[in-house]
Amino acid sequence: MKMEDYKRRGSSVRRKSNECMRGIVTVIVSLVIGFFIGVSFPAFSPPKLKLVPSIDTYLGDQDSGRSTQTILNVISVARDNVSTKAHKLDDPSEIFVTTNPRGAERLPPAIIASESDFYPRRLYGRPSEDLTFKPKYLVTFTVGYNQKDNIDKAVKKFSGNFTILLFHYDGLTTEWDEFEWSKQAIHISVPKQTKWWYAKRFLHPDIVAPYDYIFIWDEDLGVENFDAEEYIKLVKKHKLEISQPGLDPNSKGLTWQMTRRREDLEVHIETEEKPGWCTDPHLPPCAAFVEIMAPVFSRDAWRCVWYLIQNDLVHGWGLDFALRKCIEPAYERIGVVDAQWIVHQGVPSLGNQGREENGKPAWEGVRERCKKEWKMFQDRVSRAEREYFKSIGVRSSDHEANWVTDDRIQ
Ligand SMILES: *[C@@H]1O[C@H](CO)[C@@H](O)[C@H](O)[C@H]1NC(C)=O
Ligand SMILES: *[C@@H]1O[C@H](CO)[C@@H](O)[C@H](O)[C@H]1NC(C)=O
Asked: Going by CA atoms, what residue is nearest to atom 2 of ligand 1?
């Protein structure tokens, strides 16, 4: 395509999105007007408000500003109030079950399938006989084809009890079928996205609900001294909700003492760091802490952690410091498995695929964004906690202990 075409296309896309924005604004304005009319004449308006759920759902995913969100919140509260009332007044033969999943209130509870899975099915035969075996664990790798040999080795350390899911950031998928296991694996391909971007989009807790444990791993891990079944035995034995294998001390970029493999132990849940880093020894990075390169989550832990992942903060830096907020007591339930350990090879991959800018190499821009995201995430968590405690009238205690800033890890 020539530059001109790009420009033309760009402007028509822009025009379209302007039109779209205008459409949304119109809808919002009508909603607001509708809402106030509804509030003023509640007895006359239930049919109007019944329209709201579908529009709400549609707008809910737009990257809209706070005010839109607030309007929608009010609308959704109003909707619930009105709908419930309407139901009470209306014909009882109409179904409305408030304990159903949001948006599915009109369905009889017994038909609702609120969870799913990654189990492929046949196109023929009895559905009840499709699945002769249901893997109990899930492992995902975010991969580029260049790392195929390493991933092949890694996958072989995971037994048939695992569903294998590959997130492809380089668009190459069928190429992997040279490996027998690839034909049974789930492949999801979206160019140049990060592990946490995929995890947020494709690993919703209701979708991965059948799996007892979920491994969300990078592609550059050496697994010679690792066996996934043995690992799970230890995680169960020590009741770890979030864990990672110990990192061989020769690993590239071994940043934290907590993740360094201890030769004398099966599992460890605490460590010592550099002086001054851990004013509270029960908090990260000295405890309640694993890194984001090779985490393993129990089903329950993941159901919480998924909500922590931000849609725009794709690198996930800082997430490791906040994982503990999902677990109680985090200090006992988050740990590192030493008896099954891995090597972090530090192969440059996505990190190199930024954009050269102002004479700076591509990796630098990615790195900068990682750090910026870390700070943004930290600020969001702190602000959210402050807001919460303020809203219930409690003076928050020290909830920000030990947030280590990025200048310390250089
Ligand atoms: C919805 O109902 C609750 C409790 O019945 C009430 O406190 C709240 O103000 C109502 N919200 C709206 C927007 O009407
Ligand atoms: C798969 O899980 C079952 C049940 O826990 C276990 O008996 C079996 O040994 C596992 N398979 C492998 C290959 O380890």
From this structure: 81
Domain formed by 137-352, architecture: Alpha-Beta Complex (3.90)
- Amino acid identity of 215? F
Cα(136) to centroid(ligand 2), Å = 10
pTM: 0.75
288 contacts 327 by C-beta, under 8 angstroms? yes
Tens of pLDDT, residue by residue over 45-91, are: 333 333 333 333 334 344 444 444 444 454 455 555 555 555 555 67
Residue closest by Cα to atom 3 of ligand 2: 161
Nearest alpha carbon, ligand 2 atom 8: 161
DSSP lists the bridge partners of residue 162 as 137
Q: What is the pLDDT of residues 193-246, one digit of tens each?
A: 999 999 999 999 999 999 999 999 999 999 999 999 999 999 999 999 999 999
Atom of ligand 2 nearest to the CA of 136: 2
Which amino acid residue places its CA nearest to atom 1 of ligand 2? Answer: 161
Task: Count the residues in the chain.
Answer: 410
Share of the chain above pLDDT 70, in %: 74
Element (H, E) at 6: helix 3-40
In angstroms, what is the span from residue 306 Cα to ligand 1's centroid?
29
**Gyration radius (Cα) of the chain, Å:** 25
Helix, strand, coil percentages for the chain (3-state, nearest 5): 45, 15, 40
Residues whose beta carbon lies within 6 Å of some atom of ligand 1: 74, 77-78, 81
CB 293 within 8 A of CB 217: yes
- CATH 3.90.550.10 domain position(s) in the chain: 137-352
**pLDDT for the residue 55:** 38
